[in-house]
Amino acid sequence: MKALISTLAALAALSASAHAADDKLFGNWARGDGKARVKIVRCGGDLCAINTWIKPGTEDEKTGDKLVMSVKPTGPGKLSGTAFDPQRDRSYRINLTVNDTSMTTEGCILGGLLCKGVGWTRIN
Description:
By secondary structure, the protein is mainly beta. It has a single domain, classed as Lipocalin (Beta Barrel), CATH 2.40.128. Helices cover about 15% and strands about 55% of the residues. It contains two helices and eight strands, in the order ααββββββββ. The chain has an eight-stranded antiparallel beta barrel with strand order 1-2-3-4-5-6-7-8. Strand 7 and strand 8 form a beta hairpin. The relative contact order is 0.26.
């Protein structure tokens, strides 16, 4: 569950209404714990965060897993909305704070009773 929430918080896809933050979100990100890297791209009207690398031995995650997110801006560099994990057929609440070099994601399940924040660093 911990790995799932970490991945959730990191894998991001945004709706077209989040256009102002698109440039900051698109690209490659390394998770703060060093166990995953994702690439955020547009997929249809949303954005997808796709695992491009998973540290060997990491449970519940694999390369190619993706998270599809529909979020809207809530302030400068801040977005909120929902995320769908097709690998597990689950939906979550998500909040993102992003700038040019770093991102923080917070994914929540069980109606917001269980949330986890994760830090990310932009990589190229």
